[in-house]
């Protein structure tokens, strides 16, 4: 009898975690490694949030809470959606999870049956397809090119929808590309979705506050209120408030879906960490000054990285609208050979050779469903980024 579940065979380990692990191994060996593969801010959690967590501990708020979140945090989430997105929700329509990933996972596990399809634009966050597969569904990948700003067009969405389509996942600004769907782009997609009432919308808004220049964030139910009854709007505190390790995400949607997600959560993790919930409450209700400060730093870093990478032979790097990643093309480098003797057959070979020969860890594009590219996280100091870009330039210049 086979010991491991057949379900496990449908999925693969996270490539970003694998690359980060390899970078840590090289560091332990004494190598000078710059790790730009992880997706988390390099800033400390704001002080007032940390103080709220300490106060919660001192007040003895260390016991079980309601399975899907304390009432105070649910109300704060409702107020956030009303204040920033023009969306009206009641606490019964809100779920608090152990990170945004659990909100997405719970929604898919609670709704997908074998044969159900989920449309996922590429490049995509690495976990979307595997979560769909774990839930028994079928990922349907729709590729968006660099020339189209890494955004899918309405006719692509229309063509991907079938009678089996249950969800479409929209992530703006995007991990890995930083591409954002502005109001016009989003409206064009919602017009398609309004013609297909069986399709639900799962929107990943985790990078909402990390937007640059004149880009304005919008979420689907805000653009088309007619979709609100079949939309799960997901967000969290990890990126906006530098709280990745606190593991708090939240989502809002129809009561029936939220109840189903709570039922699933009650038999898996139960409630998110009580202390983290009170910290998240402080994040949503306290001073928002940190957001503007971090956004300015990330925009400066973006400009530094885009200019430096575009100066590297064979690399083409578009300007992202948000998040803290760039997703350059290395099409001109495919088939060449690195100074260390590695043939750059694909973007995985590029990333492997770059790490081994220069100590710079990035994630290859195939992990995100669109090649030949790589993801470079600029959640690091200006000095570290400048050093990394200089190493990448020397690596490219050394190719033959």
From TrEMBL:
SUPFAM superfamilies to which the protein is assigned, alphabetical: PLP-dependent transferases (SSF53383)
GO molecular function, one term: L-aspartate:2-oxoglutarate aminotransferase activity
Transferase among keywords: yes
InterPro entries: Aminotransferase_I/II_large, AspAT/PAT-like, NHTrfase_class1_PyrdxlP-BS, PyrdxlP-dep_Trfase, PyrdxlP-dep_Trfase_major, PyrdxlP-dep_Trfase_small
One Pfam family named in its UniProt record: Aminotran_1_2
Cofactor(s) required for function per UniProt: pyridoxal 5'-phosphate
Reaction(s) the record says it catalyses: L-aspartate + 2-oxoglutarate = oxaloacetate + L-glutamate
Family: Belongs to the class-I pyridoxal-phosphate-dependent aminotransferase family.
Subunit field text: Homodimer.
Listed name of the protein: Aminotransferase
Lineage: Bacteria, Pseudomonadati, Pseudomonadota, Alphaproteobacteria, Rhodobacterales
